[in-house]
């Protein structure tokens, strides 16, 4: 199987998470009306999905190593499909929250399987290129998701969106079974003792530099997710924008991230990844300070939106550089480090975004202040990071040999 074919199939799998995260954002007002709850309460269904999507990776990763990629990925798709069908039938907020939690677990099993499959098939430059191709889907899927949601609302009610998600998961299961797993060389499962898995996580947790990068990404992702969770409130309720304009403004964030991601590849030819990361975090914080000032002064949406787009757009250069730095110190424990990174960022962001839904009833200012506070924490971590991660790795290795 060619890299392009593999990237398309794995990219389609990765797209499941952003679709379940963003496709129903335009339906927040309709869901609130149907369930008889406040608009901001619907944001809890997003927060609980994100938290489950992160924490369940800690379980899905070891299961994938022990029992194989196919069984974990297919199980995740099955759980995701059943949960999506039940969400569509929910008649109250508590039921929807429960099924969204289960849907997040299924999505986590799918998400954690994709990098594992990549690591099984290639490494080094080839793996980086493959991750790059897959990453493009991560920008396309969330950009298209709100528009897909608007289209589904035009032909049915909010439950139609979840029926579509269930259908997409079934389609994925079929095409992956026929086109991927029958043609792809598979890696034999490794029956690693449970004690070793716990010890490996302990090694990462005790590594202060790696945990600095993990915390940095979790805080930056939290700032972005506060916006995503409350995007419908900001644009559709606070500024009373149409579904179409909301989708266009949301897509602009993804275009900004993709553009900075592409520009980042050029910058990496001339600068260290940690240096680009530090500047990106600084610029994101400045953009959020401007956003706070605009919200405080009661600025119109056409001034607020560009500030949001710029702040969110810097995730396009923050995430790839931070991932490279976080994984640099554990070449033989990349899966464990990646699982801990994903679990931390999604669980922390899920909690912070859930808290943000309690702030969005009367004013826009508390939301953007919370985003700026998250960014300030990330800035403190970025400023204290090693100037050159590769040199720091060599120094720690030398200390290990001398001891």
UniProtKB/TrEMBL annotation:
Family classification: Belongs to the major facilitator superfamily. Bcr/CmlA family.
Subcellular location(s) of the protein: Cell inner membrane; Cell membrane
Gene Ontology CC: plasma membrane
Residue ranges constituting the Major facilitator superfamily (MFS) profile domain according to the UniProt record: 1-389
Protein name as catalogued: Bcr/CflA family efflux transporter
Origin organism lineage: Bacteria, Pseudomonadati, Pseudomonadota, Gammaproteobacteria, Aeromonadales
UniProt keyword ATP-binding present: no
Main location: membrane
The organism's place on the tree of life at top rank: Bacteria
InterPro entries in alphabetical order: Efflux_drug-R_Bcr/CmlA (IPR004812), MFS (IPR011701), MFS_dom (IPR020846), MFS_trans_sf (IPR036259)
Species this protein is from: Oceanisphaera avium
Swiss-Prot/TrEMBL keywords: Cell inner membrane, Cell membrane, Membrane, Transmembrane, Transmembrane helix, Transport
Residues spanning the membrane: 44-64, 71-91, 97-118, 130-155, 161-180, 213-235, 241-263, 275-296, 302-321, 333-352, 364-385
GO biological process: xenobiotic detoxification by transmembrane export across the plasma membrane
Molecular function terms from GO: xenobiotic transmembrane transporter activity
């Amino acid at each position: 199987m060619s890299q392009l074919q593999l990237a398309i199939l794995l990219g389609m799998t990765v797209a499941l998470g952003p679709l379940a995260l963003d496709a129903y954002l335009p339906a927040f007002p309709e869901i609130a009306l149907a369930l008889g709850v406040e608009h901001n309460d619907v944001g809890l269904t997003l927060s609980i999905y994100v938290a489950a999507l992160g924490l369940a990776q800690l379980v899905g990763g070891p299961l994938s190593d022990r029992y194989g990629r196919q069984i974990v990925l297919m199980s995740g798709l099955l759980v995701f499909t059943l949960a999506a069908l039940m969400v569509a039938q929910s008649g109250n907020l508590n039921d929807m929250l429960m099924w969204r939690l289960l849907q997040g677990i299924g999505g986590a099993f799918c998400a954690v399987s994709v990098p594992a499959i990549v690591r099984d098939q290639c490494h080094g430059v080839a793996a980086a290129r493959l991750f790059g191709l897959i990453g493009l889907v991560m920008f396309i899927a969330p950009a298209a998701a709100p528009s897909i949601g608007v289209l589904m609302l035009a032909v049915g009610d909010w439950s139609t969106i979840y029926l579509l998600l269930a259908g997409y998961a079934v389609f994925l299961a079929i095409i992956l079974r026929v086109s991927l797993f029958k043609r792809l060389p598979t890696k034999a499962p490794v029956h690693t003792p449970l004690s070793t898995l716990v010890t490996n996580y302990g090694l990462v947790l005790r590594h202060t530099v790696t945990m600095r990068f993990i915390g940095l990404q979790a805080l930056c992702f939290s700032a972005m997710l506060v916006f995503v969770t409350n995007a419908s409130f900001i644009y559709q309720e606070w500024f009373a924008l149409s579904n179409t304009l909301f989708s266009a403004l949301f897509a602009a964030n993804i275009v900004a991230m993709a553009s900075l991601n592409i520009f980042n590849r050029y910058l990496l030819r001339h600068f260290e990844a940690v240096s680009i990361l530090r500047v990106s975090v600084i610029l994101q914080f400045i953009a959020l300070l401007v956003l706070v000032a605009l919200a405080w002064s009661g600025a119109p949406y056409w001034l607020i939106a560009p500030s949001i787009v710029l702040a969110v757009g810097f995730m396009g250069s923050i995430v790839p550089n931070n991932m490279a730095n976080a994984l640099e110190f554990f070449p033989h424990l990349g899966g464990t480090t990646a699982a801990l990174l994903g679990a931390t960022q999604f669980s922390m962001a899920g909690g912070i975004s859930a808290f943000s839904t309690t702030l969005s009833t009367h004013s826009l200012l508390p939301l953007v202040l919370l985003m700026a506070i998250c960014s300030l924490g990330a800035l403190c971590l970025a400023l204290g990071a090693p100037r050159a991660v590769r040199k720091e790795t060599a120094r720690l290795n030398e200390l290990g040999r001398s001891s």
